[in-house]
Specification:
The protein has 4 helices and 28 strands. It is an alpha/beta fold. It has 2 domains: 2-139, 3 Solenoid (UDP N-Acetylglucosamine Acyltransferase, domain 1), CATH 2.160.10; 196-247, Udp N-acetylglucosamine O-acyltransferase, Domain 2 (Up-down Bundle), CATH 1.20.1180. α2 (203-217) crosses α3 (223-231) and α2 packs parallel to α4.
Length: 258
């Protein structure tokens, strides 16, 4: 274990034997740091927060602080769970849940660039790249292998599917279906075909996803009518994921083509 002499470590914290804590970092409360975790200088990790193996926290980040919720009672017991092998760069903020007994959750292998903010009760999957200064409101659900461009903002309670790509500085206040590309203000651009190929979807799977996307968004049908027609057809699992996301959106509704 390598702890800089200027770091402050709570007696409640549990640190694996090889954890590294940088200068002036603060580990406050019942924090749990697994093997290989590195905490950068001036970072603050607090509360009921767990960091999985090999996760790195950048300089000046604040991890596990109270949610930015005017109605939140700081005495409420809630936490933050961060998985393994995440790269969390400088000045990132990730807040604990606003719900009693709840957790904000970040999966494995994510890369969060400088200045990212993940609001309370967000649920983030695996292998996502979240560029500089992306902002999540509370209760955002993010899938896997998503790329979010720098400065993009996401309203609370919405869902973002797997293999989505979002342009930098986009404004998103409705659900983004799996495999899609979004730009501007809630504008659906098409399918993330490059991402699908890189993820190993074969030509047949990509063709069926394209067929489902066309039925939903470019056929001229209402979503209700398109889903009715889709329900009478056979689909692969990958295409069904797209159809089901559109059929069962969050309270925010689904982005469609402008």
């Amino acid at each position: 274990m390598t702890i800089h002499p200027s770091a402050l470590i709570s007696p409640e914290a549990e640190l694996a034997d090889d954890v590294v804590v940088g200068p002036f970092a603060v580990i406050e409360g019942p924090v749990k740091l697994a093997a290989g975790v590195i905490i950068g200088g001036h970072a603050w990790v607090c509360g009921d927060t767990w960091l999985g193996e090999g996760t790195r926290i950048g300089w000046g980040s604040v991890i596990g602080a109270d949610p930015q919720d005017l109605g939140f009672d700081p005495a409420r017991c809630s936490g933050l769970r961060i998985g393994a092998r995440n790269q969390i760069r400088e000045y990132v903020t990730i807040h604990r849940s606003s719900k009693e007994g709840g957790n904000t959750t970040l999966g494995d292998g994510n890369y969060l660039m400088t200045g990212v903010h993940l609001g309370h009760d967000s649920l983030v999957g695996d292998s996502n790249v979240i560029a500089n200064n992306v902002m999540f409101g509370g209760h955002v659900h993010l899938g896997n292998r998503v790329f979010l461009g720098g400065g993009a903002g996401f309203h609370q309670f919405l869902h973002i599917g797997d293999l989505v790509m979002v342009q930098g500085n986009a404004v998103v206040s409705q659900d983004v279906p799996p495999y899609c590309v979004v730009y501007g203000n809630n504008q659906l651009a098409g399918l993330n075909t490059v991402g699908l190929r890189r993820a190993g979807f074969d030509a047949a799977a990509r063709a069926e996803i394209k067929k489902a996307y066309g039925l939903l968004f470019t056929s001229g049908l209402t979503l209700h009518k398109a889903l009715e027609e889709a329900s009478a057809m056979e689909w692969s699992l990958a295409a069904r994921c797209l159809l089901e996301a559109v059929a069962k959106p969050s309270r925010k509704g689904i982005i469609t083509r402008g």
